[in-house]
Design goal:
single chain; Uracil-DNA Glycosylase, subunit E; six-stranded mixed sheet; three-stranded mixed sheet
């Protein structure tokens, strides 16, 4: 189990206390813990929807059985036999992704996003995932999958497409990129079924051993 608070609180405190960023956000949230050696689902940022369960200030529950956002995460975990966990790349709460596109048009906005990506990079390395699923096209751009959209703001993570397994890798970790798994623009049922098959196929073929993580 990785407890996220000790990794993020000091860094987020500096971001929230920076006067340059005061107009960009006033709330920062994160999941309280991440499972290690699990399927890690990555989104873009916490939404402002009021039905997101809050444990305490700044902490969200990722195991809220009542929230539909996690339904397909649980389904994939059950079919693959691996535990699941979830994190977002950014910590500020916004509902519309176009607001992130707006931040990318400003120098201060780029720095604001980059400082949060630096925190997320440390989290990704520390939780040692077995498989990563980036279930958001905008989030994938910050991994360098579609550089035209991220305006040069990117994680310090080198994704390489592996022709043998038909998906990306980070170190020895298989990385899948897809659209959102729930919501209005959710992955269609056929593509969802193919994603589940692909994850199970790679798990069955790969010796997913513990590796050294380097950020």
């Amino acid at each position: 189990m990785l407890y996220v608070q000790e990794l993020v609180e000091t860094a987020l405190g500096k971001i929230s206390g920076n006067e340059v960023y005061k107009d960009f956000a006033n709330e920062y949230w994160y999941c309280d813990h991440l499972e290690k050696n699990a399927i890690l689902f990555i989104g873009i940022n916490p939404s402002s929807q009021p039905n997101c369960k809050k444990i305490e200030r700044h902490i969200l529950a990722q195991d809220d059985e009542t929230h539909p956002y996690f339904k397909r995460f649980r389904e994939i975990a059950e079919e693959t036999g691996l535990p699941w966990t979830h994190t977002d790349l950014f910590f500020f709460r916004k509902t519309k992704q176009k607001e992130i596109d707006g931040l990318l048009k400003k120098a201060e906005g780029k720095n604001f996003l980059k400082e949060q990506l630096d925190i997320s990079g440390k989290i990704l390395g520390a939780c040692e995932p077995k498989v990563i699923v980036i279930s958001n096209a905008l989030a994938a751009s910050f991994f360098g999958v579609s550089n035209h959209r991220n305006k040069g703001v990117c994680l310090n993570i080198n994704l390489v497409f592996d022709e043998e397994i038909g998906t990306f890798r980070w170190n020895n970790i298989p990385v899948f990129v897809c659209s959102m798994l729930t919501g209005q623009r959710a992955l269609d049922n056929g593509s969802y079924k193919r994603l589940k098959w692909h994850i199970k196929y790679i798990i069955s073929k790969e010796n997913l051993h513990r590796i050294e993580y380097v950020i």
